[in-house]
Design goal:
The chain has 415 residues and is of the alpha/beta class. The protein folds into 2 domains: 113 residues, Urease, subunit C, domain 1; 287 residues, TIM Barrel (Alpha-Beta Barrel). The protein has 16 helices and 16 strands. Strands 1, 2, 3, 4, 5, 14, 15 and 16 form an 8-stranded mixed sheet that branches. Strands 6-7-8-9-10-11-12-13 form an 8-stranded parallel sheet. Strand 10, helix 9 and strand 11 form a beta-alpha-beta unit. Helix 5 crosses helix 6 and helix 13 runs antiparallel to helix 14. The relative contact order is 0.16.
């Protein structure tokens, strides 16, 4: 640490540090308080000091820092955090999309061999090396869009061996991309069509055979499940989650996408996050408001399925936190553009700019139990993005068309 080099970046015309914003509840835009002509002094991977650029110059000079002076106008903010993706997959589900637009429902398509099982079949037929390569490609595209932390789920293997293949692919991809990939085991995505036992027996096999291997190989610390008709019921999932928690895994839940019920399970197990929530009503919102579980809205799935958004405004007004994630997957959310989706959700749900930007930075990081990123302040990871311009409101106004010109990951310029 003694010889770790310093670097001063600036002046940044408008710097959104987000450092004073709360973890829960609504946020007015006047709380953003952008720093004019700000500077960021980094030491290695971390932020050392933040303030007016002109005031940091003397200290940076004394520390023999490298200077990266910006001659153009930029808007700076923390790197984006995508807290829910399925970017480890093979194949396409363009056929499903066409069927939905022609009037078929998500569940009807799944019952006739499409849906998740279609992707399972294609992913199982893909080698570990090819699956790793595909995951890296998608992660790198996300980096170019300013996403510096990406959660990635398994769930398209749906057998012990194939789920392990997916999680190993995610682990290998994490070593081949500059962004941070945080893996989650979603082996309880649905009951495999080629499994000849009960849902309870399948979950027991995951508990006895898969979860211990995940611990031994340190492939993930997170376990997820899809609680929904056609997947698993709340009653079926409860023993699986209880066993996972006893083994030290954190819990997250796919809940209330088409029918309510899953969010109550998330609250009961004190999950880190509860994701989807398109079908959540007043009862579910109040349950979440009385808990520490972080709701994660997935507008990409709503756009892909042609259904309503999660009740983001009502959740915030009730006092919950709110993260916004892309749900990038081959079936319901193929767009994979976090910023565009967040902007559209904000317009639909009447979210302030502060609420949207918080939902794709530090609040999303908290949904991943990452307390070291998402804000620009001393001690945090130096994950930063710079947009061309001099008015931060352009970021959402352009609904994803405005992309970062520069991306910094752990103190290094990567894009």
């Amino acid at each position: 640490m003694k010889d770790t080099p310093f670097l001063l970046l600036g002046p940044i015309r408008q710097l959104l540090t987000l450092s004073n914003l709360p973890d829960r509840g609504g946020i007015a835009d006047d709380a953003l308080m952008p720093l004019t002509n700000g500077g960021i002094l980094m030491r290695g991977e971390h932020i050392y000091r933040v303030g007016p650029f002109c005031e940091l110059v003397a200290e940076a000079t004394a520390l023999q820092a490298t200077f990266v002076e910006l001659s153009d106008d930029f808007i700076g903010m923390p790197g984006l955090v995508d807290a829910h993706t399925h970017i480890c997959f093979a194949g396409s589900r363009a056929g499903d999309y066409a069927l939905r637009n022609a009037g078929k429902t998500y569940l009807e398509i799944a019952q006739t061999g499409g849906g998740i099982w279609d992707t399972v079949t294609q992913t199982r037929h893909t080698t570990l090396s090819d699956l790793t390569r595909l995951t890296v490609q998608r992660a790198n595209r996300h980096v170019r869009d300013g996403v510096t932390t990406i959660e990635v789920k398994s769930g398209y293997g749906l057998s012990i061996a194939e789920e392990l293949k997916m999680l190993r692919a995610i682990e290998q991809a994490n070593g081949q991309t500059v962004t941070d990939l945080i893996s989650t085991c979603l082996a309880a995505h649905m009951l495999p069509k080629d499994y000849h036992g009960t849902a309870e027996r399948y979950l027991q096999e995951l508990t006895e055979e898969l979860l211990p291997t995940l611990q031994t190989e340190q492939l993930t610390q997170r376990v997820d499940a899809f609680i929904e008709q056609g997947a698993f019921s709340a009653e079926q999932i409860a023993p699986y989650f209880a066993a996972a928690q006893r083994m030290g895994f954190s819990i997250t839940v796919h809940a209330d996408q088409f029918h309510p019920g899953g969010s109550a399970v998330a609250v009961a197990f004190e999950a880190l996050s509860v994701d989807h929530l398109e079908a959540s009503g007043d009862h579910e919102i109040q349950l979440l408001a009385q808990s520490r579980v972080i709701p994660v809205a997935l507008p990409g799935a709503s756009l892909g399925l042609g259904c309503g958004f999660a009740p983001a405004r009502r959740l915030l007004d009730a006092g919950t936190s709110l993260a916004i994630a892309s749900d990038w997957n081959p079936g319901s959310a193929p767009m994979g553009d976090l910023l565009a989706q967040a902007a559209i959700l904000g317009a639909s749900e009447k979210l302030t700019t502060a609420e949207v930007l918080s939902g794709i930075t530090f609040r999303a990081a908290l949904a991943l139990n990452c307390t070291d990123r998402g804000k620009i302040q001393a001690g945090m990871l130096a994950d930063l993005i710079l947009f061309p311009g001099n008015d931060y409101r352009e970021i959402l106004y352009q609904q994803g068309r405005l992309k970062p010109q520069h991306v910094w990951k752990r103190g290094t310029l990567v894009g």
